[in-house]
């Protein structure tokens, strides 16, 4: 192919408006590269159909388009390689974000995907491990081959849809087990009361699993001999949520139902339970806000424990050691540790392990701010003035004064730009919006459920009342009258994943236009395989798979 044609193609892409939206060109390059690598999603779908059946393949294929649409805005602003595809760690983060945003799921195997972590990538499990070995080996091998070095958006959407289908099958199997235990007909009729009991027992089973309740005691909860509210005080609210789903999904005035009617209910339950559960997280956040003194989003640990002892805040029992492991303590002042409320709410201590595939955790409210900025700037690295303009346009006014000067400092130290998903901007967001944005972690801190913490450390994850009284007595220090949240200086401006990407680019910065040109040149002979129209590139995508 001649140089002039390559140049024409490059200029056409830029001249048609793509130069102003780098994410669009990345999407073009991703699709070209996907063909060059021979990574056709159709090949994986064919394997799924052969090994898992047509019905499951059609479910996955249908859901993958929705997940792809949800991934697209984020995919466009994360650092790419020259091919327009994401590196494996960036893909891991994107997948984590879309499941948290759309479902409220913290998927097992993606817990270490926070870009602000300092994990060794070689120790992380492969992307396809999120399927937990629950697909045929041939399907897992097809994903493994596809994810050998980098990931295209279609590949990632297909993996997300495959996990979604497995979760659907898991809940259906639990429902079948309840039918069997209650001797209900799989192919006959059941009434509304029986339908309600099935749904409630499915959810009760998840609660028992999360609480580690053994079989004998579990049977007592399922039969009503023991009150499930002892383990899950919000049970009445959950019952109301289940009843509202039935009102929406089941035919009005119907009195007889089949097992198939349960299938649609289960799908809705999977898609909406996480967002319902997050309502409890908002209640928790508001209770913590009431305990604040001088610093928004920060609470003197004395006040935290005192509220449990004297204000009936039954849930505030985590030990100092466990809070520290969660990254939920700010300890810059000697003997005056403060709880970071956002890190506490988002911690594994508030997750419910409802499935073998994921835990139900609180939704990161800061992601809503990031989504707005991602849409506004549409690039991975942003000049400080442009980022300030975007923040002013789409986000609330930051709390403390002088933060925009800090943004300029960050950019000045790093070539005039701020990395949107970098450590320093994450810290800036925490200072600007301390009640929504968590403090990033600057060291290797395991994020673990209380049971895992106890197994690892042989220490209790909770304090008894006596422990709290002892803490209050030994930390009887007056609260500071000034709010000072320290900055961690000289931390990397870019995530670990992006640094490796930068080593591949001549300028040491984000992927440059000449690199895009080189990618088009190398792959130009494949362009005619598919013409990407401007209408396709400008199509609005829903923000999550539920849209």
Strand order of the largest sheet: 4-6-5
- The dominant shape is globular
Largest sheet: 3 strands, antiparallel
The structure class reads mainly alpha
State the oligomer: single chain
Span between N and C termini?
Answer: 42 Å
Give the number of helices. Answer: 23
Report the β-strand fraction as a percent range: under 5%
Number of strands: 9
Q: What are the segments in which pLDDT stays under 50 over at least 5 consecutive residues?
A: 1-30, 32-40, 494-547
Structure description:
The two termini are 42 Å apart. The strands form 4 sheets. This protein has a 3-stranded antiparallel β-sheet. Among the domains are: 3-167 and 512-538, no CATH class; 279-362 and 443-474, no CATH class; 366-432. The chain is built from 23 helices and 9 strands. It is mainly alpha-helical and 547 residues long. The chain is globular, with a radius of gyration of 25 Å. Residues 1-19 form the signal peptide.
Tell me briefly what this model is.
This protein is mostly helical.
Key features of this structure:
547 residues; mainly alpha; 23 helices; 4% strand; disordered C terminus
Helix-strand blueprint:
Blueprint: H1 3-15, H2 22-36, H3 41-52, H4 54-77, E1 86-87, H5 88-103, E2 105-107, H6 137-146, E3 150-151, H7 153-181, H8 192-211, H9 215-223, H10 235-249, H11 259-289, E4 298-300, H12 301-310, H13 320-325, E5 329-330, E6 338-340, H14 341-346, E7 358-360, H15 366-377, E8 381-383, H16 384-394, H17 403-413, E9 417-419, H18 423-432, H19 450-457, H20 465-474, H21 496-503, H22 513-523, H23 534-538
Helix pairs in contact: 1-22, 2-4, 2-22, 3-4, 3-6, 4-5, 4-7, 7-8, 7-11, 10-11, 12-20, 15-16, 17-18
